[in-house]
Amino acid sequence: MHAKARPADFIQPYGKLPKGGLSNIAAADLRPLSYVVLALVGEGGASAHDLARMVRQGAPVYWDGAVSKVYAEPKRLAGLGYLDARPAPGLTRQRTLYGLTDTGRTALTRRLAEPAPFPRIKNEAHLRLLAGDMIGDAAIVESFRAMRPELDRLEALVDAMDTQAANVPHRARYLHLNHAYARRLVKLHRDWIDEIECELGQRSERSLRP
């Protein structure tokens, strides 16, 4: 997920915060998705369409959420003073470009400076092992083997995103580290499938022998 660079004065002020600034805004105003949007806007700016495209591309390995929510979030953040906006010409019609305000930049950098938590996990594959006694070894092995084509696609996606990192030179070295993590994640699942095949596949074959 990458944001394109632009001149520092690309975005004009959209609105002002009430007196007291960030301290007077409830923490509930910023959701996990809010920080994703602020980070993608970054110093380069982006339209809602740009943000949705970047989230959609990186979702399989970085942020699995509803892309439809991304379209509304920058407008909401602009209304709260975290982003500013300006109209700009598009290919077929006028579009809105968003950039960080000082308040948005402060909120984002404060959040990113906090201790990084372990990534949230919603792993459906592990359910096959959690309840493995209910479906049998052969079914587990075949189910996990079916993941390999998806891993091939994810690996190709990560390679493509890593190549695109050159388009945002101010973020390139950080993005390369992100993509190195994604590659290790793909390899972890390949190794996991190999281990399952080795352990359960042999047992399944033995159980089928006369």
In short:
The protein folds into 2 domains: 93 residues, Orthogonal Bundle (Arc Repressor Mutant, subunit A), CATH 1.10.10; 82 residues. The chain has 8 helices and 3 strands; from the N terminus they run αβααββααααα. β2 and β3 form a beta hairpin.
Task: Describe this entry's structure for a reader.
It is a single chain. The protein folds into 2 domains: 21-113, Winged helix-like DNA-binding domain superfamily/Winged helix DNA-binding domain (Arc Repressor Mutant, subunit A), CATH 1.10.10; 127-208. 54% of the residues lie in helices and 7% in strands. It has 8 helices and 3 strands. 21% of the residues are buried. Residues 2-26 have low confidence and may be disordered.
Going by CATH, what is the homologous superfamily of the largest domain? Winged helix-like DNA-binding domain superfamily/Winged helix DNA-binding domain
Multimerization state: single chain
Residue fraction in strands: 5-15%
Total domain modules? 2
Total helix count? 8
The proportion of residues forming helix, as a percent range, comes to 40-55%
Would you list the SSEs in sequence order as H and E?
Answer: HEHHEEHHHHH
CATH architecture of the largest domain: Orthogonal Bundle
Q: Which shape, going by the Cα principal axes?
A: elongated
Instruction: Give the neighbour order of strands across the main sheet.
Output: 1-3-2
The low-confidence parts are: 2-26
Biggest sheet, in brief?
3 strands, antiparallel
- Compute the separation of the termini in Å: 54 Å
